[in-house]
Amino acid sequence: MADAPVVAVRGEAYREVAPELARFTVTASARDRDRESTLSRLAERAAAVRVLLDAAEPAVERRETGQLRVWPETKRSGERVVAYHGSVGTTVTVSDFTALGELMLRLADQDQVEVAGPWWSLRPDSPAYREARHAAIADALARAREYAEALGARVTALLELADSGLTAAPPMMARAAFAKGGGGGAAPEMELDPQPQPVQAAVEARFSISEPVLG
């Protein structure tokens, strides 16, 4: 077997699959000349965001509070504080896309709240990754058989298989930024089209083959 002819090939697979998750950010802000008033308004607006997210369960799979910022605004000519600013962001993960557009618009309809996103992605354990790896192995075997047949030989054994890497695109965003613009009434409806997620797998393989028939 060690002296048998060897063919080395690269197997590849590329798929575009439907996303499984969508993430977006919600940022509540406040500004006032008084620091305590700024903090109070910021807390109220953050609480209003939480109420809407609570009402959206179970569509909301996960939410994480990000950066909380409170900072003074000073005059250019000195350190005298003229106002205080505050903001707090939340990253929301949604798996039910039918409720995504409505939820984002309802959040954006809140006073001094900005919504940005969504970012589409797959779950880390998505079956799409496994399917791509299997397809890459099948491609490597098919290529090896093609080369062997061209030589009048056949594949006899697998000698080595190496994973060249599984590549998934970083979360892709169809940007839709919303900010409260005044006015009343119910928030308008919006449909969002999920972006297909590319998944690519590759393997390096070495196969032994029977003696070629040359000439």
Automatic annotation (TrEMBL):
Q: Which domain of life is it from?
A: Bacteria
- Which chain regions cross the lipid bilayer? none
- Name the Gene3D superfamilies on file: Protein of unknown function (DUF541), domain 1, Protein of unknown function (DUF541), domain 2
Q: Name one GO biological process term.
A: DNA damage response
User: Pfam families of this UniProt entry?
Assistant: SIMPL
Query: PANTHER family from the xrefs?
Result: PERIPLASMIC IMMUNOGENIC PROTEIN, SLR1258 PROTEIN
Its name, as the record gives it, is SIMPL domain-containing protein
